Every structure is written in C-alpha cells, then in structure tokens.
C-alpha cells in the first residue's frame, strides 16, 4: 500500500438535451349489456386504433399491448349476480420518434370512440449518447477539481486510486402529461378531422456524478 497522500473529490455534470422519443398510453374501452358484444366492440375499436397508429409508418417506433380486461359492472356494489353491463379495456403503449406527427396522432387518437390518451412522456433512449457524455464530463470535472486542490497545496497528481460511478439520473422537471378525454360517440356520417394540437418537447436534463481518489506528491505546507 502506497503512503502517498490522497485527495478525494466528487465530480458532477449536468447535460441538457432534446428528447429522442415520446411515449403515449391509449386506453380503448367498450361497454355493453352483453359480455360477448362488449368483447366484439372492444376488438373492433382496438383494431381501429392499431390501424390508425400503423398508418404513420416509421414515425412510430413501437406499439405494445399493455393489458386487456373484461369486467362486469354490478347494479349494487354489495350484491352478486345483478350485472348491469360489461366493460372492456385495452391498454396500448406507443413510442413515437417523429415529433412532427405527434400532435396530429394525439388528437386523432383522442377523437376515437371511448378512447383515453395519456401523454406524451418525453424521454431519451436508454442507450442514448447523452448519458455517456454526462459521465465523461463528470469524470473530467473530478480530475480538474483534484488538480485544483493539489495545486493549492503545492502538490501535483501522480495517480488514480479509485473512480466510482454514483449513477446517472434524468430530471425532466416533473411529469408532463396531456390527457385527451374519452372520444365522443359519432355516427357513421363524415366527420372532420380534429385540428392537431401543438406540442413542445420538454428538454431532458441528465445528471451524472462520480467519486474519485488520486495520489499526489507531498504537499508544500510551509509556504
């Protein structure tokens, strides 16, 4: 074990970047007095939603079904057997990469029958270069801070003992949600498309921190 003096520091970095993806959650519902009819209606509306999303091609990176349920609605909460209706719900998760179509997609989804749209949730991809950039900047900050301490003591850095990553965290400034209420029931007659809503991407703030220990030459403390 070396007896050389050691300086321990913490390096931090904050990097701002534009989001790379936007996530939407869509809940499509049906409600009928007959269980089979509720399921058939749900299947129809789910397919209509998927067809709409598919029409945007590569602008949509991923579509996933998060869950499906068919549940009876009772006339009386404490009495079994009295079913007044059956409610079906499908949860669809959508990842959009082309923000130019996002506003139009949100309004068209929200205009569908018994559809609830939640989002967008702006984000960076998990493998985004922004995270690596923040980590590198934090490491550079640790070296510069240690060098500054060493110079103040009349020393210089001679080696690295340890560098540990405190982890990377993303701060978006709080949740940002746009909710489109349940779409109205419409007749089969022609209907105008809703006006696209303007959506401004939320800047992503990535924070990184590292702890480092450096060996230094003996300090000049008599100066």
Automatic annotation (TrEMBL):
- Superkingdom, natural source: Bacteria
Q: Which GO terms describe its biological process?
A: DNA damage response
Xref: PANTHER family = SLR1258 PROTEIN
Its recorded name reads DUF541 domain-containing protein
